[in-house]
Amino acid sequence: MSEASATVHTTHEQTFVSKYIISFDHKMIGKQFLMYGLIMLLLGGALALMVRWQLAYPEKPLPLIGASENYLENSEVTTFMDGLWDNWLSQDSDDQNWLTKRMPVGIITPAFYNALFTMHATIMVFFVVMPILVGAFGNFLIPLMIGTKDMAFPALNMLSFWVAVIAALIMMAGFFVPGGHAATGWTGYPPLSSDPTWTGVDWGQNLWCISLIVLGVSSLMGSINYITTILNMRAPGMTLMRMPLVIWSLFIVAILLLLALPVLTSALAMLVLDRLAGTTFFNIEGGGDPLLWQHLFWFFGHPEVYILILPAMGIASEIIPVFARKPIFGYKAMVYAMASLAFLGWIVWGHHMFQSGMNPTLGATFMISTMVIAVPSAIKTFNWLGTLWGGNIKFSIPMLNSIAFVSMFVIGGLSGIFMASNAVDIFIHDTYFIVAHIHYVVFGGSIFGIFAAVYYWFPKMFGRMMNNKFAHIHFWISIVAFNCTFFPMHILGVGGHMRRIYNPMQYEFLQNFEGMNIFITLSAFVLGFGQLIFLYNAFYSAFKGKKAEDNPWKANTLEWSAPTPPPHGNFLTPPTVYHGPYEYSVPDMEEDFLPQIEKR
Amino acid sequence: MEVKRDIIPEVRLKEKFQFDGTDNAPPPLQNGDDGNNFGGFNENQELSKRNAIIAMILFLGAEVMLFAGLIGAFITFKFGAEVWPPSDQPRLPLDITTVNTLVLLLSGGFMVRALRLLKSYKINKIKNALWITLILGIVFLSIQGFEWMRLISYGVTLKSGVFGGTFYLLIGCHAIHCIGAVLWLGIATFKFNKSSARSQSLNISLAGMYWLLVVLLWPVLFIFVYL
């Protein structure tokens, strides 16, 4: 019998392509999404550093690739780059290469600057945080943590990844079309975005729209898969209220994605038609309404914010109890808080539009509904603190990053309350205060959540531990440089520093911020290069790290009961769940943890 | 010992050598469970059938949100405008579209009848209901297409301001869904016969759900756009 089964299963042997490229295995698809996100993170980070360079040293050549001072002043070729620039710029303007059109002698042109900050935000939101948090960890964790073999629709899962790759390729193509990439900010407000005459961007903006529509299809497939899997494929005994909080967060995020992205798709379709087919949805002359775009975009955009932060909240809720060796404080409150955050996310979109000329009475309604968000957010924060309180805390690397997540999220959340106030928003709207807020929530929140998750689940993903020394260096560089970069932006914002301006030195009242801008830029470079340590650590450890045990953190959830790394099919025996996921320091037990598959 | 025949060899090896010391025996196998079915995909037909139905419902939810965005835009224009339709634009054909609405609703009625009969294995009755559904759907599409041609000749185009733009976007989006649903349902009906009734009934249910979405969206669009 065993020989027969052996021959049957040789047909299952996987080739390189079926194992690593067209894989149907949720774990491999998760890793693919992780790789995809990390590559895009490098690109998005590089764009951010170029933006920062321009703000601190306006209209000075970029370091390394720019020409030297001597060349700019006397046209004398002294360095290697001087020679290259001299050669490139001496050609006819038609023949000049990609770099010379966008940054002659290394100085970023205003048009390219607009494309830089637009693409930085677009890439970070749609191609880094969403693929890593939702794509990578959603795929990797959901089947393992609810105790099933794979997703409900493995083929749909594979398609979802490859459609996302196509979307990324379309987005990248925008950098190389004539007229440059989209340059209207990631929000793409018309009429700037609906008519090529304003920005001079032609196909860049079209490709931006098309890429996001394609990405919407990918997310739709992913979210249908997640919800179906969680609803219908749970192991025996895994009731909804026994699910780990990270699965709850991914479940809620999948619902948000499912219902929010089609609205963006409808708006993008209208924008593309305006640009290509001559409709006038957002053009006043043809009877259209530019505000309509803002309503539709933010109706999607605010749930999108929760799509970015909720999985990180779930990750922190997962890691903090493990390293505090305590049950999570208020499991049900955590679930209901996440659900109410998701619900409130639908009725607050107008707070992005206080200054748009919207009806002020409507503004007051949106102000109140936005302030209400503070309640579930505070419930979550205090529950994390309650979990830490009196715990036997181990400051391991995932724990440090989770605590950083909680702290940075609190700062970002509090600055959010300022902006929610209609009156205060008149003053700080479209200033660096907003930039500081979004980065505290998305970098301080989501990206630290990603770090925590990668450090925590790396042993299960790759079967090896990450290097602890590098991880500590990376963490301390990140947390210090992050705060040095983004905290001063609050001060810039209150000082009236507008976001998205090309050269702050053109404004007299911003000239005394030059020092602060330089400080922010230097911190940003430290922060950016600090991430290389993380990438090096991840790639090095995936091949050469210390072999991991099955349950290195002594955690309860189901994925730690599977072998490391989990085989095809995940579990050796079908798991049965006997209790909730946070049974730590149970009295009268030898061990201080009780895996979900073990009976008390 | 039959129960373990499907466990792959590498897993069995691991089980032998890495049984990490804990003495929690696997839970007893249920009747008819060969130990390889847990949360299973493919093996368990009932489960994958339920998965497909849930996924279809979710997909329809996403479709409704897509139309919600488009209808929201339409409402903004219609109720924001002083005169609607704009004075230089022709009226939409109300009479024939009302008849057409009834045709589509009737088609939805036959679809419901087919879905109700689906479990009874009365193959001929089901097939008849499905064919009537399809024919009525195609009649609806043809009348719509004919009316479109007339409207275009009267000067309602994508470029003739938001009136034409929203009309073609909203009604066009519905028409594309309608064409897709007719094709899917047509292929499913064509494949559906006595020998394939069991395997094809899921396909019919899914296509039927999709068709019902198309049918039920139409009265909403009709009320907003035509009345």
Fold and architecture overview:
The complex is a heterodimer of chains A (600) and B (227). In chain A, 64% of the residues lie in helices and 0% in strands. Chain A has 20 helices and no strands. The radius of gyration of chain A is 25 Å and the shape is globular. Chain B has helices at residues 9-17, 45-80, 94-117, 123-154, 161-191, 197-226. Chain B is elongated. The chains are: A mainly alpha (600), B mainly alpha (227). The interface between A and B is large, with 69 and 56 residues.
Just name the CATH architecture of chain A: Up-down Bundle
Order of helices and strands of chain A: HHHHHHHHHHHHHHHHHHHH
Rg of chain A, alpha carbons:
25 Å
**Main sheet makeup of chain A:** none
User: What is the tally of beta strands of chain B?
Assistant: 0
Provide the domain count of chain B: 1
CATH class of chain A: Mainly Alpha
Ends apart, CA distance between termini of chain B: 70 Å
Helix/strand/pairing class of chain B, anyone? mainly alpha
Strand content of chain A: under 5%
Mean pLDDT of chain A: 92
Count of alpha/pi helices of chain A: 20
Q: Spans of chain B of 5+ residues with little confidence (pLDDT < 50)?
A: 1-42
What descriptive keywords fit this protein?
heterodimer; A: about 600 residues; mainly alpha; 20 helices; globular; B: mainly alpha; Four Helix Bundle (Hemerythrin (Met), subunit A)
Summarize the structure.
Chain A is an all-alpha fold and 600 residues long. Chain A is 64% helix and 0% strand. The two termini of chain A are 37 Å apart.
